[in-house]
UniProtKB/TrEMBL annotation:
Coiled coil: none annotated. The keyword Lipid metabolism does not apply. The lineage of its organism: Bacteria, Pseudomonadati, Pseudomonadota, Alphaproteobacteria, Hyphomicrobiales. SUPFAM superfamilies: P-loop containing nucleoside triphosphate hydrolases. PANTHER family: ENGB-TYPE G DOMAIN-CONTAINING PROTEIN, MSS1/TRME-RELATED GTP-BINDING PROTEIN. Belongs to the TRAFAC class TrmE-Era-EngA-EngB-Septin-like GTPase superfamily. EngB GTPase family. Keywords: Cell cycle, Cell division, GTP-binding, Magnesium, Metal-binding, Nucleotide-binding, Septation. It comes from the Bacteria. The keyword DNA repair does not apply. This is Probable GTP-binding protein EngB.
Length: 227
């Protein structure tokens, strides 16, 4: 595990030029196409490439971030209704990787048994998908990590699945408030063994942190090629 002293916050205004910024730009400028929605493990695509998954509580902006990263307005379906994403939605990011939009946790307008089925699917996916390189966990930057988010992080830690925190809607915070949120989020990861030592701050509306998130994904893919 990386010593905590090396953990850091990614602030686009202060970071030195990252070569993966250009690599990520080119990667996401290429084709990214919807592949399939999966409600069962046996429906998942072949494990022939790295997989980058996006998790977060319902309505945190997962689909919106996927659209912002790929520069497409409707690649991933968005909705003001929490719980819209009900399956594992696969997108082919060219040939190097799949992007996986996971069901939102914490709330869903669906029967209890259906929510339990999604939960079982996600747990099995996290534990059994060898090609899953990293889960980007989206946290609402206005509120920080909530109890429901802690439960999700506990699940990821228990599954020994590498994950990285992405703060969304960070444009709602400025100055000291933004710095405090970033620092507080970083501090909350101190004793979490599967957490990647970096926090990304984004705004899909204003484009904040989108290039840095693309770079982070490109780096993961480069470090863990599949196929």
């Amino acid at each position: 595990m990386t010593p905590f002293r090396s953990r850091r916050v990614t602030d686009p205004a202060s970071e030195p030029e990252d070569p993966y910024l250009e690599i990520g730009r080119k990667l996401f400028a290429g084709p990214c196409d919807f592949v399939k929605s999966c409600a069962k493990l046996e429906q998942l695509p072949d494990m022939d490439r790295a997989e980058i998954a996006f998790a977060g509580r319902s309505n945190v902006g997962k689909s919106t971030l996927v659209n912002a990263l790929t520069g497409r307005k409707t690649l991933a379906k968005t909705s003001n209704t929490p719980g819209r994403t009900q399956m594992l939605n696969y997108f082919a990011l060219g040939t190097p990787a799949y992007l996986v939009d996971m069901p939102g946790y914490g709330y869903a307008q669906a029967p209890v048994e259906q929510v339990k089925a999604w939960t079982r699917l996600v747990q099995a996916y996290l534990r059994g998908r060898a090609t899953l390189a990293r889960v980007f966990v989206l946290i609402d930057g206005r509120h920080g990590i909530k109890e429901v988010d802690k439960d999700a992080l506990d699940l990821l830690d228990a599954a020994a699945t590498s994950y990285q925190i992405v703060l969304t809607k960070i444009d709602h915070l400025t100055g000291a408030a933004r710095a405090d949120r970033l620092a507080g989020t970083l501090d909350a990861l101190k004793r979490r063994p599967a957490a990647y030592p970096e926090v990304l701050a984004t705004s899909s509306r204003d484009g904040i942190g989108i290039a840095e998130t693309r770079a982070a994904i490109a780096r993961v893919i480069a470090e863990r090629p599949m196929g």
